[in-house]
Amino acid sequence: MAPSAQPALLTSVSLDEKYANVKWEELGFGFVRTDNMYVAKCNHGEDFQEGKIVPFADLQLNPCAAVLQYGQGLYEGLKAYRTEDGRILLFRPDQNGHRIQAGARRLYMPYPSVDQFVSAVKQVALANKKWIPPPGKGTLYIRPILFGSGPILGSFPVPETTFSAFACPVGRYHKDNTGLNLKVEDKFRRAFLSGTGGVKSITNYSPVWIPMAEARKQGFSDLLFLDAATGKNVEELFAANVFMLKGNVVSTPALTGTILPGVTRICVLELCRDFGYQVEERVIPLEEFLESDETFCTGTASIVTSIASVTFKDKKTGFKTGEETLAAKLYDTLSDIQTGRVEDTKGWTVEIDRQG
């Protein structure tokens, strides 16, 4: 099932209202215009200075901007959560800050410090506080973007780089809790060794929209991509890491430069060790993956979502789903920490507002 596009469910609000005028029960995972965004700019040879919150508006770009001409751009994704007692929490924003820096180094871009990144995310969350859904109704998805905004034609360096962040209230990425039905993509490859698969480059996604569109026409939830070198080993979904469980061993593909180092991924690895599982990061042949007891995917949007089936060359293999799965336990544990329902003994959450 494809993530639902979000219609215009909301209107502007007055300052004395706690929430925006949103039909929270109908909230999908899609763009919703909110009030404010963050913008900072950096000239070549300089460091990023503190940006500012401005009203949400279209960005003005030179037609020769590096992001338009050469695809020099990155994005991140993280969420703000409203707790039952009125607090606002972020989940490991420093990890996203480190990841955008790694991506910027790969794309030859200046980047904000981790402190600047986290500060921007906090400011965006608070500036759009009314759009943070009530507890249990969704989250505020925050999308930081870093891109070459200066004009460039045939040479570099890029004269100007922009760091911005905006936010949208979202529901669950996958509405169907019964599990995903995946198709193995054995023609198109998502990433290549020495390429950009290990960072959140904006160029990683649209090249596989053709097989994604075809898979969704056929009724599949998502694609499972294979490695480019051999075409025999599983890598990840369109925008999620993948795991398998066999006996007491939890395995996920190793980070070799073609797989995104997901923030949820590293949390799940740690939680699985806490639960007493043996954890492996390694090459996983598709044949072995299809013999798993249970499979699931992880990501900021997906959180932890069971995989119900994988279809390869018209052969469909089913996997365990339901409330008694490891995926369900991981989802509940992570969600409880993220939303403040249990004590965060890991130090993963960041509280940004104590006022209700």
Automatic annotation (TrEMBL):
CDD domains (UniProt xref): BCAT_beta_family (cd01557)
UniProt keyword list: Aminotransferase, Pyridoxal phosphate, Transferase
Record bears the keyword Nucleotide-binding: no
One Pfam assignment: Aminotran_4
Keyword Cell inner membrane: no
PANTHER family: AMINO ACID AMINOTRANSFERASE, METHIONINE AMINOTRANSFERASE BCAT4
Family classification: Belongs to the class-IV pyridoxal-phosphate-dependent aminotransferase family.
Protein's name in the database: Methionine aminotransferase BCAT4
